[in-house]
Amino acid sequence: MILTRQDRVLVWGVTGRQASFWTGHMIAGGTRVVGGVHPARAGESHLGLPVVGSGRDLGFDVALLFVPPAAVLAAAADAIEAGARLLVILAEHVPLHDVLFVHALAGRAGARVVGPNTAGLVTPGAAFAGIMPAFNDRVFRPGAVGVVSRSGSLGTLICLELVRAGLGQSAFIGIGGDPVPGIRSTDALAALEADPRTRAVVLVGEIGGTLEQEAAAFALTMTKPVVAFIAGAGAPPGRRMGHAGAIIDGTGAGHAAKCAALEQAGVRVAAIPGEVPALVRAALTSAEGEGS
Amino acid sequence: MTLPEHQAKAILAAAGLPVPPGVVCANAGEAAAAAVRFGPAVVKAQVPAGGRSKAGGIRFAADAAAAGRAAAALLGGTIAGHTVGAMLVEPRLDIVRETYAAVVADPATRGPLILFGPNGGIEIEAIAAADSGALRRLPVDILDGPAADALVRLVPEVPQAAGFLAGLYRVWREQRAVLVEVNPLALLACGALVAVDCKIVPDGAGTAGDGQPTALERQAHALGLQFIELDGPVGVLANGAGLTMATLDMVRHFGGRPANFLEIGGDAYTRARAALLLLLGKPGLKSLVVNFCGAYARTDVMAEGVVAAWQALAPAIPLFFSVHGTGEDEAVALIRGQLGLTPFERAEDAVRAAVEAAR
After folding, report:
1. Which of B242, B251, B261 sits opposite A153 (nearest CB)?
2. B321 assigned to some structural domain
3. How many A-B residue pairs are in contact by the CB < 8 A criterion?
4. By the CB < 8 Å criterion, does A17 face chain B?
5. ipTM given for this complex
6. Hey, of B114, B201, B249, which one would you mutate to test binding to chain A, going by the most A CBs within 10 A of its CB?
7. Which structural domain range is residue B163 located in?
8. For A108-162, how does the pLDDT look when each residue is reduced to its tens digit (9 = 90+)?
9. Cα A119 from Cα A147, distance rounded (Å)
10. Candidate from A104, A154, A232 with C-beta closest to B141
11. Lowest mean pLDDT among A96-110, A234-248, B216-230, B235-249
12. In angstroms, what CA-CA distances link A1 with A123, A172, A251?
């Protein structure tokens, strides 16, 4: 789930206005976009890319789904049948049962799913797939910090703070805000732990669900330092705040419980996003002290 | 929003699952008339809230006259924050055992999960918390559905429940529901199973919690915006749930109190003007911080909306910006040109300035 320059990306729904805007930026940023899928417009050319009717008509590695929520299941099934290694699903509000079918089909085929409702994947200086401002060098620069985020907008702010402090990113992995995400925070942490370019990891979480508790347990097994910011310290209990996942829905889902679990696992937790870079520097310094 | 109990039970009945014979009543006379057929009866307030029994929303009546009195007492009252407008009248049942049955989506396995508690009842959460074995879990492959023998193994104490669970799973699939829950699923003295209470949460039923929305919140929801009114003086407008929550956290971190949660992420980013017009209608605002980090949401498009709303209402409160990400240069130029303001370089500086201005 760390995108490389070699990964061949095929874009479902490429002809849409938003998809065209973002695919154009992806190509300009060096991403190996091989084409687009639109059953009614097969044979046409768009943004200089071939448009095909199905994923089976073109070799690719990563399926980027820019289709509306109701069309996600059909597009994902096509991508999985065509042998996609990884699916990135951007749409928000995909019907729950469709999401479960996507996960079941992907599971049987051995494909991984990022999302739904993810902002996508960015490897600064190499490639990106999704809707993050990877082309803005005030937000993304090549570096050694891996960022895992449920939210695209808050992930953007954290990346901005890192770059402002002179720290670049090795990769950004968007978990997304769907109630049933494909890859979870622990999967992203495992990928960054194994990634040779990553020296520290920033986990950007929020209230609701159990992703942060799982991440805390996994962080105990990691050799690389982890810094976290968890949004929602002041959220009113029981009120839903946008992401379906971000609801205080029982013991453990609240802000204090998540921060306590992370701190117990040795993760440094920032009170506000602006504190993240200093904590990353401190973590890197002490990690290198231990290593020498 | 959770479906009312009587609607949920009608769905179960249509799927061939056993529910008590019941009558939906709008007043005491109807309740008494319904109870004549039943003898001893139960009168249940139809409100979409858990803990209804504890809150006094379920009354037992020995006869028709008592059922009428119970209905009169419930009608128009408030149960768990909801006004009672209808009651469901059912016969009292001779229950020998209460169990718990549910179907949900499980984020951990990314698939359906059938839950069965051999000892159900109103305190199922407490029972499950105290004893992890009290709630049995059967993960299901949604491509195959639940295997009959796996269902049989889940319910050794109550063999009849295997067929019920198969039916409940079908209801969950056909309704494309988030949750279907029967609590209690009762075993009667005659050996039959009955769904005494049922909760169905449809997909896309974005609940804003148990409280009643305010007038402003209702207007925002009608526009497709997430809006929660809070009691502080610092207005907050940001894009995306995560960034908006983080902005609220920053307001509190610097000693301020936010006035609201209002996010215009996803495709709502084009509705910044409507969102801000709404927010500026909230009494007691003393400052406003606009914190945009454009990913999908283009900050230039959002800034246009903010400028339009600000110029339309010309509010007499100070405004502070932080704008970064997609469309940032155009957005900053627009804010400078139209409002004569320079966005703060750092989000936390904009928030701190808004907190100080509201003191």
Report:
1. B242
2. yes
3. 186
4. no
5. 0.91
6. B249
7. 95-202
8. 999 999 999 999 999 999 999 999 999 999 999 999 999 999 999 999 999 999 9
9. 12
10. A104
11. A234-248
12. 10, 10, 31
Matching CATH number, A136-291, of 3.40.50.261, 3.40.50.20, 3.90.180.10, 3.40.50.10280? 3.40.50.261
Asked whether residue B122 falls in the same domain as residue B87, the answer is no
Q: Do B203 and A181 touch (CB under 8 A)?
A: no
Question: Could you read off the pLDDT of A166-207 as tens digits, one per residue?
Answer: 999 999 999 999 999 999 999 999 999 999 999 999 999 998
Residue B208 included in any domain: no
| CATH code of B315's domain | 3.40.50.261
The helix (run of H) or strand (run of E) holding residue B199 is strand B198-202
Residues B102 and B125 in one domain: yes
Domain boundaries, chain A: 8-114, 136-291
CA distances for B131 relative to A210, B119, B135, angstroms: 20, 11, 8
pLDDT category of residue B208 using cuts at 50, 70 and 90: very low
Q: Which residues of A touch B348 (CB under 8 A)?
A: 272-274
Number of H helices, E strands in chain B: 12, 17
Closest-CA residue in chain A for B326? A133
CB A14 within 8 A of CB A38: yes
Q: Which of A25, A46, A93, A243 is catalytic?
A: A243
Is the preceding peptide bond at B184 cis, omega within 30 degrees of 0? yes
Name the domain boundary from B50, B73, B91. Answer: B91
pLDDT of residue A245: 41
Nearest CB to A100 within list B142, B265, B347: B142
Residue B97 · residue B116 · CB < 8 Å: no
**CATH class of the structural domain A8-114:** alpha beta
DSSP states of B12-51: HHHTT------EEESSHHHHHHHHHHHSSEEEEE--S-S-
Q: How many structural domains is chain B composed of?
A: 3
In this complex, do A92 and B266 lie within 8 Å of one another by their Cβ atoms? Answer: yes
Q: Does residue B156 share a domain with residue B76?
A: no
The pLDDT tens digits of the residues spanning B305-327 come to 999 999 999 999 999 999 999 99
Residue of B nearest to A135 (CA): B326
